[in-house]
């Protein structure tokens, strides 16, 4: 199976990453909000940290593949696919005039001999100066031309691409290519669309469980494969309950589907808790990290197949999180390890820097951000094997090791 992810913890075999690139250098104070960043990372250091992350994974037997390489393979397949991609990408970036579209298309063709460069450029963004911008004559036929400046981003960067967890998500042997909450991140899902449609490794080999043209938004950070039968989905700032229904129906409509239960975790809507995995990740057969801030307000719903073919059976579960997990996972005792321990200031600070966003690469073996010293120490006291990634710059994007990785295959 080219996609096989039926657990959050079974040994990780193959993972998808994106090495942060010049898209981070096109961030400015004025665009941070819209592009979902809280600060501008220092690219060189962010790349070195990311390389260290990839190396930790390789050293632990994980095959690392890069989004940009898979996408370059797709663009190398044919000129038709390349052109279809380029025109779709230009349109989705909000470029509306024929003149600009052609200019950008021609500009991108300069990278025709090196499709990886073409892909990276599509991620970076483009300013008018690069297109050979010249001031318009004082009287011209276009208000847009007259008002433009050389530093205007005609194509926005996609700085969140290094969070490969979100634009699409592997579920069992299938994949959910997501519709995202924000405009900036919706553009990222184009790569998933092309890879699953055309890449020879994936084409026709993967069950498509959701597509980016659906009406409701759902993001991969909200999707947790608890085991082969139980899927958890966060209902959050990024994922709507209606999207969970569509996903559930798509999963259950396959008669041979192994997943028979979906647990919807209703978490508070806030920037700090944007996805379920920012407050809750599995680290061992019987252990999870959790941000204490969600333990009070958390409500969980059970979704199963309903009576009719296209129906669901949904109910609210009135129990504590530990009890719910024990019941659905069939484990005697579940331990929740609090991010920051009992210290609420540390909990909030370290959650903000993704202390509870861990990537489990085998039961009891996890990758975390080095900067979350309180949580990392606590995890070790529970005998968890903690591998730390340097994280001064990567963390400015508000995502940790789980957000920065999309498992393609687990044992
Ligand atoms: N799975 C995650 N928690 N991803 C975090 C993504 C962070 C990114 N800046 C965003 O706002 O979308």
From TrEMBL:
Keywords: Arginine metabolism, Cytoplasm, Hydrolase. It comes from Aminipila luticellarii. It is found in: Cytoplasm. The lineage of its organism: Bacteria, Bacillati, Bacillota, Clostridia, Peptostreptococcales. GO terms for cellular component: cytoplasm. It catalyses: L-arginine + H2O = L-citrulline + NH4(+). GO terms for biological process: L-arginine deiminase pathway. InterPro entries: Arg_deiminase. This is Arginine deiminase. Signal peptide: none annotated. The active site is at 403 (amidino-cysteine intermediate). GO terms for molecular function: arginine deiminase activity. Pathway: Amino-acid degradation; L-arginine degradation via ADI pathway; carbamoyl phosphate from L-arginine: step 1/2. Its EC number is 3.5.3.6. Its main location: cytoplasm. Belongs to the arginine deiminase family.
